[in-house]
Amino acid sequence: MMEEHGGDAAPSVTTTITGGNEVEDGGAGNIKIKVSFGSSNFDVFITPQSTFGDLKGVIAKATGLDPKVQNVLFRGKEKDDHESLQMAGVKDNAKVILIETTPTKTEDLEKVEEIKENIEEISRGLEAVNQVREENNQFEEQVVSLETVVCSGTQVADKDFIFLTEMLMRQLLKLDGIDAEGEGRIQRKLEVRRVQSLVEKLDNLRTKNSNPTGNVQEKADEPSLPSSSSKM
Predict the structure, then answer these.
(1) Domain 2-100 class?
(2) Which residues 6+ apart lie within 8 Å of 124 measured at CB?
(3) d(Cα 191, Cα 117) in Å, to the nearest integer?
(4) Is the overall model pTM greater than 0.90, yes or no?
(5) What is the average per-residue pLDDT within 48-75?
(6) Mean pLDDT over all residues of the chain?
(7) Could you tell me which of 136, 161, 137 has the C-alpha nearest to residue 147?
(8) Distant-in-sequence, close-in-space partners of 214: CB < 8 Å, separation ≥ 6
(9) Given a cut of 70, is residue 24 above it in pLDDT?
(10) What is the CATH number of domain 114-211?
(11) Rounded to an integer, what distance in angstroms lies between the CA atom of residue 166 and that of residue 125?
């Protein structure tokens, strides 16, 4: 085990060499960051008060990758070195994406520009999906409220179901219009399934609301069992 001590700006970390790979061990007060780099994934540990520049330094110790060629994305957005992890919302077990840009040759410049364009495209897609997700959170709360009222036996105006269903269908159209790649496409697909599930729940609640006494009637129609006295 080899212990590395950083300067005043960078947090101290402990590096363990295992099978040729460097793995950062968490110390007291450190949080674990999951790093996705190409086809590989690894964890590093750092204090939450650190910056993304400090995080690049820790990643450099684990990978040997110069911080100058590191692009770190969190929630689909590339982060500046001076930005605080804590202020950006990075918590324990948070995931970041690491992209290397190494313009060592003239022909590599076009590749770097292409990578940056892809990063921007992924960021735009994720941001658009996140915006629709925030709106869907409010619609889901309304569905839950309707469910509570209907299940209590109180009848709800049919127009409430119609309005909420129409709003959710508009959300599906919004999601369909988002041009997303990579992680953005995955999140968009998950959000589409979520909205479809809410629409299905509304349909079931609307049916139940249209016949609130159905369960009561079914129980009333059931034949009663003969009492013990009638057998005698």
Answers:
(1) alpha beta
(2) 179, 184
(3) 25
(4) no
(5) 90
(6) 78
(7) 161
(8) 208
(9) no
(10) 1.20.58.120
(11) 24
pLDDT at 9: 42
**Tokens read off for 70:** 């590191």
Three-class SS string for the chain? CEEECCCCCCCCEEEEEECCEEEEECCCCCEEEEEEECCEEEEEEECCCCEHHHHHHHHHHHHCCCHHHEEEEECCEECCCCCECCCCCCCCCEEEEEEECCCCCCCHHHHHHHHHHHHHHHHHHHHHHHHHHHHHHHHHHHHHHHHHHHHCCCCCCHHHHHHHHHHHHHHHHHHHCCCCCCHHHHHHHHHHHHHHHHHHHHHHHHHHHHCCCHHHHHHHHCCCCCCCHHHC
Domain assignments of the chain as residue spans, ordered by start: 2-100, 114-211
Residues 24 and 13 sit within 8 Å (Cβ to Cβ): yes
How many CB atoms neighbour CB 191 within 10 A? 20
C-alpha distance from residue 81 to each of 32, 112, 154 (Å): 18, 19, 56
121 falls in which pLDDT band (50, 70, 90)? confident
